[in-house]
Amino acid sequence: MVEPQWHGKTTLILGCGNWLCGDDGFGPAVAQRLEAEFTLPDDVCVLDVGTSVREILFDIVLSAQRPAKIIIIDAVDCQREAGELFLLDIE
Questions:
Q1: What whole-number distance in Å separates Cα of residue 75 and Cα of residue 27?
Q2: Does 65 have pLDDT greater than 80?
Q3: Is 20 helix (H, G, I), strand (E, B) or coil?
């Protein structure tokens, strides 16, 4: 069985969204730019997950090896200012 790219990584960055829906392509664009233009630490994994973020998160929940930190980059419509960054408290 092939291990996912994120196995053994402490940080996972997920670029979510659909290129065909305008600004919803923001997450994948950020993921691709991070991979192309930056040297990331060995313990960081960046994935352009498109619209399949639920499947990836489900796999992580079921895995014995989980990243300590998951950063989700996505465009959302939730009465926030354009470009505003915010954290989701999941605890």
A1: 7
A2: yes
A3: helix
Q: What is the pTM (predicted TM-score) of this model?
A: 0.81
DSSP 8-state secondary structure symbol assigned to residue 8 = T
Question: Looking at the DSSP assignment, which residues form a beta bridge with residue 15?
Answer: 48, 73
pLDDT for 5-49, tens place per residue? 888 899 999 999 887 766 678 889 999 999 999 999 999 999 999
Question: Alpha helices, DSSP H only, in the chain?
Answer: 26-37, 53-62
* 56's tokens: 């990836």
Q: How far is CA 19 from CA 4, 37, 48, 84, in A?
A: 24, 20, 11, 20
Helix (H, G, I), strand (E, B) or coil at 87: coil
